[in-house]
Amino acid sequence: AYTISIWFLIESFQDPTNDKYYEPRLFSFLNKNGSGIEAFFIRRHLFVRTNDSEKTAINFTFETHKWYHLV
Question: pTM to 2 decimals?
């Protein structure tokens, strides 16, 4: 088993690429077949996806310029 522990600060939620599918990754540990885990943002909400499954929303709205600790 593994544990992921991350401290992060969000500077901005603005999309610098103007891509309508902009989903910045907090982390992504996927292999070439899509198996693994990743966490990414859609607007101000964090989603987690494992093994190419449906994404699960974390019920929390993140703010810019604040530190967060995720375990």
Answer: 0.81
Please write the tens of the pLDDT for every residue from 59-68: 998 999 999 9
CA dist 8 and 39 (Å) reads 12
Locus of tokens 């599918």 = 21
Q: Which helix (H) or strand (E) holds 9?
A: strand 6-9
Write out pLDDT tens, residues 9-25.
999 988 888 888 889 99
Quote the pLDDT of residue 43: 85
DSSP string, 13-59: ---SS--TT---EEEEEE-TTS-EEEEEEETTEEEEEETT---EEEE
- What's the rounded Cα separation, in Å, for the pair 1 and 15? 35
Structure tokens at 67: 């530190």
Single-letter amino acid code for the residue at 34: G
